[in-house]
Amino acid sequence: MTLNFIDITAFIVFILLVIFVSVYLSRKEETSEDYFLAGRSLSWWVIGLSLIASNISTEHFIGQAGQGFKGTVGLAIASYEWIAAIALVIVAFFFLPRFLKSGIYTMPEYLGKRYDTPTRTFMSVMMLVFYIGVTMATVLYAGAFTLHTIFDIPLHYGVWTIGLIAGAYTVYGGLMAVVWSDVIQGSVLLLGGLIVTLLGFKAVGGIEEFVKLSEGRLHTILPADHPELPWTAVLIGGMWIPNLFYWGLNQFITQRTLGAKSVIEGQKGILFGATIKLIIPFIVIFPGIIAFELYGDDINNPDAAFPILITKLLPSGLIGILLAALFGATMSTLDSLLNSAATIFTVDIYKPFINPKANSKKEIKIGRIATLIFTVLACIWAPVLTSFEGGLYLFIQLYWGFVQPGILAAFLLGMLFKKIHGKAAFTGMLLNIPVYGILLWLLPNIAFLHHMMISFIAIVIWMLAYSYMFPSKTTRHIEITNIKTEKLPRLVKIWGMAIVVATLGLYILFF
User: Which of 120, 164, 216, 451 is a plausible cystine mate for 439, CB 3.0–4.6 Å?
Assistant: First the structure.
């Protein structure tokens, strides 16, 4: 890809602007609550944009656009966004109030309060292993691949460049730096995606001509025997497990909702993010389909569809800014991962086991050191992913299945049933590893989402049976903090219902 001087300048200036604003606005962190949870002062619109910016990475604007270009899945890939919208509504009304009222910093901390220390520690360790070994490394490699595609920078240089830049402002500013970098980069990325889509419609001859040329790519429901996204797994099966885990129990995402100034502010932020989720397929997948219609004969690699569409449709300067935002999306995801991993290490491992008397200054120092160490580890590990033949997307989805069903079962059953105890939760999460692994081995030809659902059901049965056959003599209750309890506004209720109705409407429209 050839960029002119204006595009390169715009790219560099935008990245520097993001770093400056993030560092400047986070310069006054004094307590651990300031550093890890932005002083619990985040407004709804900041939370919503940060949620989406942390979620959106190269996987979306490169991978999902590529799926639209290929056509084997087409618009059905939008289920990852639209099922997420309903999952976010569930998180807003069911999960978030419980988390904020318990006063927790981390998701493992909640398990510690509900169950016991071993359960909390097990989740903490597993989260750190998977954040560093799977998600961080994947994001780093994907971002480096984007840099290599745009500027022909060697992959290992790209990995360390992204890691050190994102690590530096995360070390300095904590969650406040993370969310403001997310707000800037996410806003520009969403606006840029919208512009590309509108210009694409114009280039292809209008929306009606686009639909006419799409040749069956605009269907969301695929056959039950589809190897990747069978409708059974999407609508009533395994897709709900990674979505409820990712949006409700994943420290990397939930940390900004835990930083909300109130329960209602957090709920509005989540619903704002869910609303944006409904729009994302139109500005990510549609451009991939448009690229096929306009330049299908000239594009050999489907993952190049979105970058090529940018260079063909956008004017100089705007190309550089949008590519910078695309690169920045990688940094937004990485900085969120680094900050959440450092929070888990400090709150759930360092303070309980190494230094229980640590004050806020010590916790901030440890959090910064942990962030730096995790950055280096992820940069070292990222190049190893080049040897994974299944591709980055399969890598990240496949391996999270070893922990997601068990963790979701532990949280859900702990909230719904008082008799579920720590030993049942701990052994259930531990059981997830062999059960999921055996399913992958015995049933390699079915969608991984089915493996996740079977694992989840098996773990739920185990936890219920264990708890009722071997009941605990003591019951643990989660204490409510001094967070003010507010009556849920009617507007918030209507907003949540409207998102569910809109999602169902989109599935009907693109059936």
Answer: 451
pLDDT-based confidence at residue 91 (cuts at 50, 70, 90): very high
Percent of the chain with pLDDT strictly greater than 90: 36
Q: What is the domain range of residue 236?
A: 5-29+40-391+489-509
The residues, any chain, with a CB within 8 Å of residue 167's CB and separated by 6 or more, are 334, 335, 338, 371, 372, 375
pLDDT band of 409, cuts 50, 70, 90: very high
Residue 390: the pLDDT is: 47
For residue 196, pLDDT beyond 50 = yes
Virtual CA dihedral for 90, 95, 98, 104, nearest 10 degrees? -150
463, 368: one domain: no
Q: Which residue type is seen at 311?
A: T
Q: Looking at the DSSP assignment, which residues form a beta bridge with residue 42?
A: 260
392 contacts: CB under 8 Å, gap ≥ 6:
59, 63, 138, 141, 142, 385
Phi, psi of 495, deg, nearest 5: -60, -45
Spatial distance between the Cα atoms of 145 and 137, rounded to a whole number of angstroms: 12
Q: What is the per-residue DSSP string for 152-177? A: ---HHHHHHHHHHHHHHHHHHHHHHH
Q: Which residues of 77-88 are buried (b: 16+ CB within 10 A; e: fewer)?
A: bbbbbbbbbbbb
Same domain, 436 and 298: no
> Is the model more confident about 42 or about 120?
120
Residue 258 has pLDDT above 50, yes or no: yes
Q: Is residue 370 helix, strand or coil?
A: helix
Which of 274, 273, 278, 267 is closest to 492 using CA atoms?
267
Residue 83 in this model has a pLDDT that exceeds 90: yes
* pLDDT, position 118: 94
Question: How many domains, the chain?
Answer: 2
Check if the beta carbon of residue 361 is closer than 8 Å to that of residue 353: no
Which pairs with CB-CB distance under 8 Å and at least 24 residues apart come from 474-479? 475/418, 475/419, 475/421, 476/113, 476/114, 476/115, 476/116, 476/421, 476/422, 478/98, 478/102, 478/110, 478/113, 478/114, 479/102, 479/103, 479/113
Residue predicted with more confidence, 486 or 435:
435
46-80: pLDDT as tens digits: 899 888 887 877 667 777 888 888 877 778 888 88
Residue 149, domain CATH: 1.20.1730.10
In 3-state terms the chain splits into helix, strand, coil percentages (rounded to 5) of 80, 0, 20
Percent pLDDT > 70 in the chain is 91
Tell me how far apart the alpha carbons of residues 204 and 496 are, in angstroms, rounded to a whole number.
35
CA distance 97 to 200: 42
DSSP tag of 29: -
What pLDDT sits at residue 34?
A: 67
Three-state DSSP class for 314?
A: coil
Question: Do 442 and 303 lie in a common domain?
Answer: no
Is there a domain that residue 474 lies in?
A: no
